[in-house]
Amino acid sequence: DVKVTQSSRYLVKRTGEKVFLECVQDMDHENMFWYRQDPGLGLRLIYFSYDVKMKEKGDIPEGYSVSREKKERFSLILESASTNQTSMYLCASSFPSGYGYTFGSGTRLTVV
Amino acid sequence: GESVGLHLPTLSVQEGDNSIINCAYSNSASDYFIWYKQESGKGPQFIIDIRSNMDKRQGQRVTVLLNKTVKHLSLQIAATQPGDSAVYFCAENRGRRALTFGSGTRLQVQP
Predict the structure, then answer these.
(1) Which of A15, A27, A48, B54 could form a disulfide with A33 if both were Cys (CB 3.0 to 4.6 A apart)?
(2) Which of B76, B67, B66, B106 is nearest to B89 (CA)?
(3) Does B39 touch chain A (CB under 8 A)?
(4) A chain contacts of residue B97, beta-carbon cutoff 8 Å
């Protein structure tokens, strides 16, 4: 069964901490994405990557960075976590055409 | 539990009835559409997709209809079951590699 795996289901971090959210896919997908999901706002794209070491900003990149050193792994980094970054974070991957768009189970991050 | 979609429109149906969930999209250049189902505490799961050169596509108990004239997409679920209760999202590919998602509709199935 093909999978997108997010390393943590729940995380609690303190304001100002550096936070790493990890995502691994086993489908040999070129594209990988990070979204955040908030009540009433739906899914909003933070960053995406269409190749190793390549990245593009999404709709809400402020306060975030990403790293893609290997094709199967895409990391989201909160350089200095703030309470307004408390959210559900979803990773996804797909083929370049957009087909096969598959999500992970999500990481619920709480910043206190 | 999962607090996704506190302010979502809600569709309530009786078990066994057919459900129709609607979605409007804005970009006439979008060429690929997907419906996702999201259960509480889980990531969105693929249900069915359709390309813009089609008007209708059927899966198991689900049908997607695409009306490009009015930029409207619908998901029909036949014989709705309690396990169909979830939030449903439509998504469109606007050609920038990443999908754009609608805000979602909550489907509640009454026994």
Answers:
(1) A48
(2) B106
(3) no
(4) 31, 48, 50, 56, 96, 98
